[in-house]
Amino acid sequence: MTSFARPVPALIAVLTLAAVPQAHAAALWFGVDARSSGLGARVGAALLPVPFLGTLGLEAGAERGWNRGSTVFSTAVTLRDLNLPVTAVDAFASLGAEFSDAARLYAEGGLRGPLLGPAGWRASARARQDGHFSAGLGLEVRF
What we know:
Layout: H1 8-19, E1 28-35, E2 38-50, E3 54-65, E4 71-83, E5 90-99, E6 103-116, E7 119-128, E8 133-142
Antiparallel strand pairs: 1-2, 1-8, 2-3, 3-4, 4-5, 5-6, 6-7, 7-8
Keywords: Signal
């Protein structure tokens, strides 16, 4: 194999990734969710784009449980706008902490899709370090 032919597979891979359309990257977003654990609201901001993947951002939220009066606050680092080719849907993944009576780490992931204009739906699942799982559906507005 000649020295010219060696970088060709890498070049083809880079050009293929560059041709994949990126999801709409939001600079700011807010949303509300109905989760299996309660009602929640959140707000977030993009920090920086991650080439070929999506956008890295910070998100903060508050959730009120269905059967209790306490409010759980959360903050997370999130990788958003992970484009799913051939769909209008994108994925996200977050790592964060919840604060109520104690601090608990969590991982969350889900899908987002368009509804009308900047508004879209959001479906997610969250697992906390203490073994608690929750899932939710919500609305999100992106700017």
